[in-house]
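hey
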């Protein structure tokens, strides 16, 4: 084996024209494979960095969608939480926490920070020790905090002596008692609503369930995490929690979900789709290199025949050729792994907000084992067909010039078919992205600036709106509780007078200027005014989606509900995402209902006459005039919000398009190689044809027809494969079907054009044959 490895290396070094293209082609496929395996392993396979992470679960109560109720995912009713905590035998701990934004006052400046208020058992439940200092103890007062590694570096200078330092958070002193490890994150950014800001957590502070929540047990806790006892399954825990619930209300269901599944969320399917795409790219690369090996073994037919005549066994010849393919594969792996690790780091740096657990992805033994396994499979796949083709039959068959042509053409069919699958997948995802971009959100995006604040009362919100509307260059200003297109929900039931049926609607709290600032039209009725304040009769504005659904044959304006009198109908806005239809919504006046908003931030909307981004500093200054302790954060144009909502779809579409482009390039290279080989084999035939009177165009047509037939058959096979595989994308598509005929036809035309490009040079050589020269040589 050592001798054959040395001989294989020498032979490859003496043939750089073969070795370099083979290594680089395979390295390209292995680089893409390494990058996606690295990301997929870190996100989907690697355990969470907690103590016994398989025991950690998230508990929530869910109301499913029905004909009259929209359905929603909620946290846990406090009454149920208290009952479970006192009597469970399946759980080894259960805590609640909430995530929000506070203002850090430091050196005279206000800095927004993300703070998790959690029960003292939260960090011990996760089982992660502090990097320096300690986590919470049962007797800690509420004025202590554990800092994240990033906050410690940014705000505290990374000084170990910072333990014991005092911070001022919302005007209250808070002592730092510990710093968490660098890669520790909880809750993960992908598990929170974008309304809460996807920035990482800065501080964890101890929190006690408020007395008013204990006094009203029907209220809900924001988030609940628990640890299963050893040996207890998720289903067993769920059955116990269901049996222990004090009241089963409104069809609400208990959901116990492994924490890892919650964190990975919807990212699993896109990652698996991209992983499948890189496998196809790697297969195309392998087919390409196998074609190169076929050409090489054909050129070595005489050598192989001599060795066989001198007594070399078939097994020995096959082993030698397989070792040669293994050397090429390992050389390609060295380049591919380095390029793949670099590519995955670049990808994670650019998309850390869209990919969960991005900070935990690292090249490790799992990834190395996956890449090594792929190398072994590739080396066998690349070398086996050429080796078997080279040693099959008798010596006379080995020496025949046409040996390998059929196999090479078959491999090209495989390349074209796989490239077709990739291109169609990329095409329908790009169509989805374009369709989403063209979808109207229901508000006017142009010249609209957004910013988030946490105000203390309704009058302050009204004062901020008034001050912003007075700024030069501002047409209108308004405030809303939940900004559209940020996948944020707050829904509840309501009843219509004379109808006991409970309906569901999204709740939004706005100031009078909101509809003008957002560009949402009034269908009928009036807007909120100064008379809609605390103590006045409750009023509400509904969108036309609610009007059509619950008042299909009558005018809702003037109708009474348990949440107020309907005074107007406005246009519908896509609240969750552009791909989701508008939901029934009820708008309430901030000044009249601020008591329900105390735990939430508000979003400012400023309609500018020109570029809204230029108003950012003026908006900050205007808010500070109203409240000097108020921090303004997440300032962005509404167009930026729309683009952010499409980030995941855009990323998936462009990555798949990049992989499809690589696959197409490799397929073109493969077609070129095969046609060049076939033209060389048919040189004598072309010379005879031209000697008998065939012109240049006749020879060109012969070559092009053969190549287009290969592309056509490959496209047909690709159509069958694509119809079977692209159905997995159905859940991610919008406005396009997996079997979209326009996309299929476009890809077929593209492959035909690519085949013509690949045929140009070989066809030109065939047409330039000099019959006299070729026949004299023959």
């Amino acid at each position: 084996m050592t001798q054959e490895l040395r001989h294989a290396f020498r032979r490859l070094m003496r043939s750089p024209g073969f070795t370099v293209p083979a290594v680089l082609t395979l390295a390209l496929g292995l680089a893409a494979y390494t990058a996606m395996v690295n990301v997929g392993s870190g996100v989907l396979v690697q355990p969470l960095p907690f103590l016994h992470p398989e025991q950690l679960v998230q508990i929530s109560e869910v109301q499913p969608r029905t004909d009259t109720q929209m359905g929603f995912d909620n946290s846990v009713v406090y009454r149920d939480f208290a009952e479970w905590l006192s009597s469970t035998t399946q759980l080894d701990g259960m805590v609640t926490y909430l995530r929000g934004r506070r203002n850090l006052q430091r050196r005279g400046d206000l800095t927004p920070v993300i703070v998790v208020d959690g029960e003292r058992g939260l960090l011990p439940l996760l089982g992660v020790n502090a990097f320096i200092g300690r986590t919470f103890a049962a007797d800690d007062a509420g004025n202590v905090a554990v800092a994240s590694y990033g906050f410690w570096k940014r705000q505290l200078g990374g000084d170990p002596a910072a333990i014991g330092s005092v911070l001022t958070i919302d005007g209250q002193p808070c002592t730092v008692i510990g710093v968490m490890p660098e890669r520790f994150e909880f809750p993960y950014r992908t598990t929170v609503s974008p309304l809460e800001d996807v920035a990482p957590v800065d501080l964890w502070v101890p929190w006690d369930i408020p007395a008013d929540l204990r006094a009203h047990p029907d209220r809900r806790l924001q988030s609940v995490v628990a640890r299963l006892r050893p040996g207890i399954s998720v289903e067993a825990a769920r059955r116990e929690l269901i049996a222990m619930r004090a009241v089963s209300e409104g069809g609400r269901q208990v959901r116990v979900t492994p924490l890892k599944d919650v964190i990975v969320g919807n990212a699993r399917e896109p990652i698996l789709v991209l992983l499948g795409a890189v496998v196809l790219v790697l297969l195309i690369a392998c087919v390409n290199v196998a074609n190169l090996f076929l050409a090489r073994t054909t050129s070595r037919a005489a050598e192989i025949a001599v060795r066989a005549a001198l007594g070399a066994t078939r097994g020995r010849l096959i082993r030698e050729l397989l070792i040669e393919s293994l050397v090429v594969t390992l050389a390609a792996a060295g380049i591919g792994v380095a390029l793949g690790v670099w590519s995955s780091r670049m990808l994670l740096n650019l998309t850390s907000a869209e990919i969960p657990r991005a900070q935990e992805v690292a090249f490790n033994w799992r990834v190395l084992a996956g890449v090594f396994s792929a190398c072994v499979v590739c080396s066998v796949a690349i070398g086996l067909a050429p080796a078997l083709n080279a040693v099959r039959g008798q010596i006379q068959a080995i020496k025949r010039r046409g040996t390998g042509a059929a196999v090479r053409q078959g491999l090209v069919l495989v390349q074209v078919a796989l490239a077709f699958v990739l291109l169609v997948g990329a095409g329908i995802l790009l169509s989805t992205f374009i369709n989403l971009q063209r979808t109207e959100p229901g508000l006017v995006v142009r010249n609209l600036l957004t910013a988030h604040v946490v105000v203390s009362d309704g009058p302050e919100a009204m004062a901020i709106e008034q001050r912003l509307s007075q700024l030069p260059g501002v047409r209108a200003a308004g405030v809303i509780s939940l900004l559209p297109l940020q996948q944020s929900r707050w829904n509840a039931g309501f009843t219509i007078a004379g109808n006991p049926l409970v309906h569901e609607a999204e709740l939004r709290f706005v100031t009078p200027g909101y509809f003008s600032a957002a560009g949402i039209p009034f269908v009928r009725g009036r807007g909120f005014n100064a008379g809609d304040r605390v103590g006045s009769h409750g009023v509400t504005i509904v969108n036309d989606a609610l009007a059509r659904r619950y008042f299909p044959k009558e005018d809702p304006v003037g109708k009474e509900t348990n949440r107020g009198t309907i005074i107007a109908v406005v246009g519908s806005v896509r609240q969750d995402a552009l791909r989701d239809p508008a939901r029934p919504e009820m708008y309430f006046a901030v000044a009249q209902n601020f008591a329900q908003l105390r735990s939430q931030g508000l979003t400012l909307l400023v309609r500018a006459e020109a570029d809204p981004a230029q108003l950012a500093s003026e908006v900050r200054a205007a808010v500070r005039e109203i409240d000097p302790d108020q921090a303004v954060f997440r300032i962005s144009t509404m167009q930026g919000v729309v683009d952010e909502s499409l980030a995941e779809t855009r990323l998936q579409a462009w990555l798949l398009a990049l992989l499809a482009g690589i696959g197409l390039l490799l397929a073109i290279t493969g077609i070129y190689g095969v046609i060049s080989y076939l033209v060389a084999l048919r040189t004598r035939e072309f010379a005879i044809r031209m000697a008998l009177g065939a012109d240049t165009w006749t020879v060109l047509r012969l070559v092009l027809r053969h190549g287009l037939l290969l592309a056509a058959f490959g496209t047909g096979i690709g159509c069958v494969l694509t119809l079977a595989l692209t159905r997995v994308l159905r859940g991610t598509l919008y406005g396009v079907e997996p079997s979209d005929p326009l996309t299929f036809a476009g890809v077929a035309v593209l492959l035909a054009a690519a085949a013509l490009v690949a045929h140009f040079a070989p066809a030109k050589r065939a047409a330039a044959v000099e019959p006299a020269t070729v026949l004299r040589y023959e």
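The chain has a mean pLDDT of 82. The first helix runs from residue 2 to 13.
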